[in-house]
């Protein structure tokens, strides 16, 4: 094992565990190889000499460095003394001045640091003090860097306080509140401490909560006001007073910035107006119900859907005393109006085709009357116009089968989509069209029979055959469809009769004995056209 003396020489200080392990490992290896005690002492002595040599070298180097420093210090002292001698002042005075100047700089920096820290954290008790034992440039630069960081933080807090104060003033103006009504202290505007910022943030949050509550209340009042305006058809002149604020009904919190837009006084004015409209609604409720019924029935008339009896509805309305139940009636009417509009829109394509179909029926009816008139071939004023209309009517009537098929296709598609029967003024439209098709077939057969009979009579006697009127059921079906159904028959009939061009007077007079060449040509052309029918 290594002797204690060697340990003291090799490791005069407290040995580390690793060095202890190395010595222990060396002794174990000597034991394993059977190293003689004498050889061990020689090796340890050699190690001791090596360690002492290392110490001697290190001590010599330190002595040399110390001598160099001493020479440099001596040269510096001599230089300072020479400078002081040159300017005629002792060396101690100059150094004192530099020290005082350094102290002053330290004092300014530490004072600014303490002042800014006091502004930002007034509750902080510990303050930075100047250490006279360390007045080096390095320490001064450290303090200046710390001061710069504090100034940046102060500038950031000042900007934040400015933004928060602006937000607070804006919220106060919107709410119609005096700034003195807030929970801030009188001197908080210039305070940038953590407590002042926290109080300001808390107060802004409180005002925002008030703003949200008032905004919700105002929007609810405005929604009610709009409903009442629409319900009672309030004139635009009466709405002008609140038109400027109605636009805020869907505005967000940040979009409402007008002065006193959410003040208590303004909200009270809106609330008073809503109360006034509510009272006015109670007086006009019956008129509103009548108006809504008229609107509903007008939509149903346009859609040719059966209308309701207003008298029965108004008797039921008069029997109700509760305003809530009357409001429910209005709400149900609004729903029915919406459903009627949807129904009207879904029937639009079919109704347009029915309108064209009715026009074709009117022309067909006119053409039948024209063909039954014995004086239709008389030559006179306006004859060419009548013949031109007859030609157009025949062209339109020839398209009626295709029109009927297209109308049936539309109706079938509508009934399949809606799962209901398409009724036109209370009658099934498909049934009416089927009846018309049957009637048309009967009319075609009747025409064919008349042509055959006329041809036979013409060949037998050479006289003109008497044209028989069409069967009664054919005329009735044509008039029913042309008048738009049973319930609207009278109204449609009056319109169709007034809109139909009147028959010229010369068609009602006896046939003239003298005919011009032009009359003969028109007559022959009309006969040919009649035969084609």
Automatic annotation (TrEMBL):
What are the record keywords, sorted? Microtubule
A Pfam family per the record:
MAP65_ASE1
What GO molecular function terms would the record report? microtubule binding
Listed Basic and acidic residues bias regions: 439-455
Per UniProt, the ranges with Low complexity bias are 479-505
> Which terms does the UniProt entry file under GO BP?
microtubule cytoskeleton organization
Q: Does the keyword Transmembrane helix apply?
A: no
Which InterPro entries does the entry link to? Answer: MAP65_Ase1_PRC1 (IPR007145)
Recorded GO cellular component terms are: cytoplasm; microtubule; spindle
Record region (Disordered): 439-533
The entry's family comment says: Belongs to the MAP65/ASE1 family.
- What's the name of the protein? 65-kDa microtubule-associated protein 3
